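Q: What structure does this chain adopt?
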Amino acid sequence: MNTYQRIVLASRPQAEVKPEHFRLETVAVPELADGQLLIRNHYLSLDPYMRGRMNDARSYAAPQALGETMIGGTVGEVVASRHPSFAPGEFVAAMGGWAEMAVSDGAGLRKLDASGVPLSAHLGVVGMPGMTAWYGLNRILDLQPGQTVCVSAASGAVGSAVGQLAKLRGCRAIGIAGGQEKCDHVVRELGFDACVDYKAGNLRADLKAAAPDGIDGIFENVGGEVFDAALARTNPFARVALCGMIAGYDGADIPMRNVRLLLANRITLRGFIVTEHLDCWPEGLAELGALVAAGRLKYRETVSQGLASAPEAFMGLLKGRNFGKQLVKLV
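A:
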């Protein structure tokens, strides 16, 4: 193969992401220099954080550059190497971007055992989303057995892992998701104690019924009305792990009425970026991988086929159309 395809950011969205903000290109496979390796990407991960990178705004990371390959996590196979630590045939997790192939100098790569855990899972429950769940639950919420955690976007890649890990700790897990099908999956398949359908129009009343004794920890992925409703049910000294605010990623306002409860209930709120805590990854990934291999941690994937499908799949992700981890299969 002398060429491969990639998707670049063609223009910056001012509000909702549209297909014209992306461009599919065919580029030549470069010659490797000493210390480099070539990876054939098998799966691409699509994640909400990518929406923030599309803006030219100050944030925790630099904006996605126009005309450059869209950022994204990948898993793939080394197909050529001039790097002493990597050999053809090895599988690696990388930030290969929205592209069929990627050249790396080895920095930030993680070698994968594709025999124990499916390759795709290394982008989900045994990858960044799983580590996000693990870190927020263990290092921020630190709930005790019998306490209640509320998880928004509970059927998603992060939320689904949070609830299951909380149950393994002896906690009560309440999910919030969009649609009865997702709520049924969260309770029946993932083992949450209850799940509230925010689309049903009775969010506050339903959440009160699901958490009659209040909420001790909130793992927040959505923000806005969903976060506001959870705050209304908090117990004194509750903790919040603020992971995402997807409700406002397209530029919409995310007003809240219960901010006063941060003070009244003496709530501890901490936002976090899991890639700033790489020291925890070996411990967390080992635990997550063992749980998946033993069948004690379940996951679900939505997989679109081919690189050209990535923009549509990403736009669907931002609107909650995916079920579980959103991936693009490239091979």
